[in-house]
Amino acid sequence: MPVTDAARPLILLTNDDGIRSPGLWAAAEALSAVGYVTVAAPREQSTGTGRSMPITSDGAIHEEQVTVGGKTWKVYAVGGTPAQAVQHAIFELTPRKPDLIVAGINYGENLTTGISISGTVGAALEGAAFGIPSLAVSQETDSSYFLSYSDAIDFRVAAHFTAYFARLWLAWDGMPDVDVLDINVPLGATPQTPWRITRLSHRTYYVPIAPTRERLDQPGRVSYQVRMPETLEEDSDVHALRIDRVVSVTPLSLDLTSRVDPQDLTLRLQRLPGGR
After folding, report:
1. pTM of this prediction?
2. Has domain 10-202+231-270 been given CATH number 3.40.1210.10?
3. How many angstroms separate the CA atoms of 114 and 137, rounded?
């Protein structure tokens, strides 16, 4: 296992775009000023895998060398999803429990209640399940870049906010029901762009598109497109990012229980035909 400076925070960095993503390396360079960074990311492109744990993942870990900011880094390519990369890193690659887990920087924004599909958010939630403060960081891009490793995307500002919130998260003693910060940086942002605490929009933002094929036994994938909702909640992540052009910071909880009054829900169900 790697040896670290015990006086510095230990940061585990992963993503869902894969070990070769420029967004990952922009985050690595920025976070290296905050703490000791261990990079363990999926061997393959893993967008849309959520927090999944497929039994088909082989779990093989390959050590690689990558040059970042003129320095050579030892990194780990993991045969699995982002959430599985987090598990393997905690069990096998870090000398102690990380102080912080960062997932990103993702090509494309992760917004609305559809974030449960995101491998970036899934990795952060998996880190939080281990009791580790976690961040999911995404850069708004045109949808044509979502599955790319394009060097046309400038991650410097998103990297700035990655390091900024990493420092805040490491200094904070926590708050009940806040396990992950989902951070989305608008295209064209600067280090001076304001940030805002938001909530997930309930509007549909990623619209599924049915496959086009002549027979059901032909290959066919459900794809999607980004579509701005006609109306938006003013306190939502989409409104902050797409309308107000500020950095959206959404607190997420591992507790998926609906925030409803249990007694009220009980009474409503009991009043229905057949209820008791």
Report:
1. 0.93
2. yes
3. 15
